[in-house]
Amino acid sequence: MNSLARQRGSVLYVIFGVMALIIGFALYSISQKANGPEPSSRAQSQQKDTQYMQWYPQARQLAEFTLTTHEQTLMTNADLQGRWTLAFVGYTFCPDICPTTLAQLGRAFPEIAKIPSEHPVQVWFLSVDPKRDTPQRLKEYVSFFNKAFIASTGEHKELYPLVRSMGMMYSMSDDTSKPNYLVDHSGSVVVINPDGNVIGRFKPQHIPGQIAISDTAQILADLPAIIGG
Q: By CB neighbour count within 10 A (0-12 exposed, 13-18 middle, 19+ buried), where does 156 fall?
């Protein structure tokens, strides 16, 4: 009887172990799906053909948002569908990183627009300083760099989760009651695919004595492999 009981105990132990593995795998699959879609074989091939972009392990779904553009129209997630987007987070009163990055993107945009792709490319400047960056000011600002660029902003309750879902950050480190307060923000150029999901970013290049910005030469080098096809 003791031998039979031990055998039954061993069988039950194996059964419970198998069940635990199945449940664990199911929970892992659910968590992976919640984080975003798995990289496709095409995406994996794209990653092999790029040198500079930092690819996220899997595409990230953006937080739902409703913003106001520089043309005083509403902008939602739907406006990212069907096109590639190069997104940059900043503000118009930024003294260095923002104007330098947008100037370089403005100069590179004619070449970017020539890259063969099923979907067009747009550049999106997301202002995280809604107190000062009115639609009129945003329009004057982005039009200076390139009239095709899109700019938008919104309330912080919209901006914070949106910027976080991009894999970026910003913070109001200064007293905003002062006229010339500064805003801390990420300097990467984020790539959003035609499904409206973030797939990676071009990080700033830190060179002594120079402003740390994303290198548009690197963006131009990698974009054909990313958006082509």
A: middle
The single residue listed with the structure tokens 């009115």 is: 134
- Token pair 């290198």 in the structure block, residue: 215
Separation of alpha carbons 72 and 8, rounded Å: 72
Task: Give the torsion through C-alpha atoms of 108, 61, 29, 45, to 10 deg.
Answer: -20
Cα–Cα distance measured from residue 128 to residue 92, given in angstroms and rounded to the nearest whole number: 9
Closest listed residue to residue 199, CA positions, set 54, 2, 80, 101: 54
Q: Do 31 and 57 share a domain, yes or no? A: no
Task: Check if the beta carbon of residue 192 is closer than 8 Å to that of residue 199.
Answer: yes
Query: How far apart are alpha carbons 156 and 129 in whole angstroms?
Result: 9
Convert the pLDDT of each residue in 12-68 to its tens digit.
444 444 344 344 434 334 334 444 444 444 555 566 689 999 999 999 999 999 999
45 and 28 in a common domain:
no
Tell me: do 48 and 160 sit in the same domain: yes
Range of the domain at 11: 1-35
DSSP-assigned states of every residue in 116-161: --SS-EEEEEEES-TTT--HHHHHHHHHHH-TT-EEEE--HHHHHH
Same domain, 80 and 20: no
- Do residues 16 and 89 share a domain? no
